[in-house]
Amino acid sequence: MNAFDPDAHTAESRKTWSVAAARYDKLSSSLFSPIAEAFVEFAGVRRGARVLDVACGPGTASRAAARRAGETGRVLAVDLAAGMIEVAASREAQKRAAPIEWRTMDAENLEVPAAAFDAVLCQLGLMLFARPERALAGMRRAAAPGASVACLVQGRRHAMLFTALVMNALIEQAPELRAPPGAPTLYALAADGVLEERFALAGLTEIVSRRLTGTFRFASPEAYWEEMTGASGRTRAMLDGLDAVRRAKVKAAVLRRAAAHRAGRGVDIPYEFVMARGHAPAEK
After folding, report:
1. What is the pLDDT of residue 151?
2. Are 118 and 93 within 8 A, CB to CB?
3. What's the chain's average pLDDT?
4. 107, 154, 176, 232: which one has the fewest Cβ atoms less than 10 Å from its Cβ?
5. Given pLDDT bands bounded at 50, 70 and 90, which one contains residue 278?
6. Which domains occur in the chain, in start order?
7. With the C-alpha atoms ordered 54, 39, 154, 19, is the resulting torsion angle positive or negative?
8. Does 52 have pLDDT greater than 80?
9. How far is CA 72 from CA 42, 67, 169, 201, in A?
10. How far apart are CA 280 and CA 201, in angstroms?
11. Which residues, other chains included, contact 184 with Cβ-Cβ below 8 Å and sequence gap of 6+?
12. How far apart are CA 281 and CA 147, in angstroms?
């Protein structure tokens, strides 16, 4: 197993997520919009707020935050992958919502003014970063005194079957794809207390967390497979690295396990997300 290289991981993420941007936008729009609404409410975005959305992807949480902030607010949405920013910026501006500025930027090197935002968000990004502690430190720095910093990450592997059905099958067929020590994983921040501890180490206060659970509906096991393997950057790259025989075995395992979740004419795949919110220390 190779040693983890954080810079190589970041460079690969920049490339793979740019390539997957349009496909991921389709998945995010169809499934993650209600999650984003719940998340920005939990984050405490208020009317007139100045909001920073870190690792914004195609902008699902950015647009939800802009609606809550209203016309008197403003949103800066940043992402490592230029392809994501291109897709996000191509959408029409929302009416009666805060204007959104889209910028390509590394979450681990946030080039934004200090203490400039009333709310700092990161939906489904932190668990993917090579150096999450650096990203959280930057988010805290960007938050005004007393402002909220909130992150949403994937939940525990056994509960987050939405991604785990595919990831488990991949690792079973290709154990060499298991992340090396020190590398980020989808579920690294999911256990009780882990995300809260990261927030505390970043110097955030008044930390609270919540789990979101439910199911995502797909028309069939095959529809689930196509959505998941088409939309993800890193998972698709892992799958493409396998030979045809192992790819077929992964697909067969996923279809079989997804079929166990049939509900009516479709399949309902369980999900779990974890949200945490803290505050930048108030000025004394």
Report:
1. 98
2. no
3. 95
4. 176
5. very high
6. 6-156+183-214+273-279 (3.40.50.150)
7. negative
8. yes
9. 20, 10, 48, 33
10. 12
11. 9, 127, 128, 129, 130, 132
12. 8
The DSSP code sequence of 225-238 is HHHHHHH-HHHHHH
Confidence bin at 1 (pLDDT 50/70/90): low
Instruction: Judge residue 167's burial from the number of C-beta atoms within 10 Å of its C-beta, 0-12 exposed, 13-18 middle, 19 or more buried.
Output: buried
Q: Give the burial class of 177: count Cβ atoms within 10 A of its Cβ; 0-12 exposed, 13-18 middle, 19 or more buried.
A: middle
3-state helix, strand, coil in the chain (%, to 5): 45, 25, 30
Determine the number of helices (DSSP H) and then strands (DSSP E) in the chain.
11, 8
DSSP state letter for 241: T
Which two three-digit tokens encode residue 189?
């921040």
Tokens for 173?
A: 């067929």
What tens digit of pLDDT does each residue of 24-41 get?
998 898 899 999 999 999
- Residue 237's CB is within 10 A of a number of other CB atoms, namely 15
